[in-house]
Design brief:
Blueprint lengths: L7 E2 L10 H11 L3 E5 L5 E6 H12 L7 H7 L2 H4 L7 E2 L4 H11 L3 E5 L4 E6 H11 L7 E8 L4 H11 L3 E12 L2 E11 L3 H8 L5 E7 L1
Parallel strand pairs: 4-5
Antiparallel strand pairs: 1-6, 2-3, 5-6, 7-9, 7-10, 8-9
Helix pairs in contact: 1-2
C-alpha cells in the first residue's frame, strides 16, 4: 500500500496570517488536529497542530485580565506558532515508511507532495486504519496470535495448512522478536470459513506457541 491510497486529498489548509483563535475554531469545527499552512501561491510554508495553538493561547494570556484577552489573541497569528521546517513525503512512499518517519520524529502527520505542490495529508489515524485493515479488523473470523520459528518457508507452510482445511486468510501481520531466546516471529492471522478447533489443529505443528485464539 502506498501513501496516495491512504492520504486525505485536498486537505483543509490555512494562511499564515490567520489568527490563532480562528485556526483553533476551524480545527474544532472540522474535528481535525493539524493544519498545513500555505502562502498565497499555494506553497507549503508550515504546519500547526491543535497543541501548538492551545499552548500559544495559554502562554500568551497567563498574565492578562479577561478584558485584554480578545485583543491580544486576535493579534497572534498562525505564522507565529507554526512549525516551519516541515517533514514531508511523496505520494509514492510506502505506508510503512510513512509510519516509520512519524514514529522516529514523534509527529502526527505528514504533508504529501506531488511534483510542485502539496497533494494530500497522511495522519496517524490514516495509518491506524490501514493497520486495522491489514489485520482484518473489520472482518469476522478466527483470530490467532502465535509465535513461529525464524526459518525460511514457515509462512508458506502455514498458508498451505490453512488452505488444506479450506480456510480463507483475511488478515495477516508479523512482528520480529530478538532476545536471549534467539530470533523468532510473532504472527497474527484472521481466518474465515474454518472452525477455530480445526484451524488450531492444522497449525499447531508449525508453531512454537499459540498465544491467543478467539472468534472476532
Amino acid at each position: 500500500m502506498l501513501v496516495r491510497e491512504l492520504m486525505t486529498s485536498k486537505p483543509v489548509v490555512i494562511a499564515p496570517e490567520m489568527p490563532v483563535p480562528d485556526a483553533l475554531s476551524l480545527m474544532r469545527g472540522r474535528k481535525i488536529h493539524q493544519l498545513p499552512v500555505v502562502d498565497n501561491k499555494g506553497k507549503l510554508v508550515g504546519i500547526v497542530t491543535e497543541q501548538d495553538l492551545l499552548h500559544a493561547s495559554a502562554s500568551s494570556v497567563s498574565t492578562l485580565s479577561v478584558w485584554e484577552l480578545p485583543t491580544l489573541l486576535s493579534k497572534i497569528t498562525v505564522a507565529m506558532v507554526m512549525v516551519k521546517n516541515v517533514a514531508t513525503i511523496n505520494e509514492d512512499t510506502p505506508v510503512e515508511e510513512a509510519a516509520r518517519v512519524m514514529a522516529d520524529m514523534g509527529i502526527g502527520c505528514l504533508p504529501v507532495m506531488g511534483k510542485d505542490a502539496m497533494v494530500g495529508l497522511v495522519t496517524k489515524s490514516d495509518l491506524f486504519r490501514a493497520f486495522m485493515e491489514l489485520l482484518g479488523g473489520r472482518r469476522p473470523g478466527v483470530r490467532i496470535w502465535a509465535q513461529t520459528p525464524d526459518t525460511k518457508g514457515t509462512v508458506a507452510k502455514i498458508t498451505s495448512a490453512i488452505a488444506a482445511v479450506s480456510g480463507n486468510i483475511v488478515g495477516l501481520g508479523f512482528n520480529e522478536i530478538r532476545d536471549g531466546k534467539g530470533s523468532r516471529w510473532e504472527i497474527t492471522l484472521k481466518v474465515q470459513d474454518v472452525p477455530a478447533e480445526k484451524l488450531v489443529e492444522a497449525l499447531r505443528p508449525l508453531l512454537l506457541e499459540i498465544k491467543d485464539v478467539r472468534e472476532s
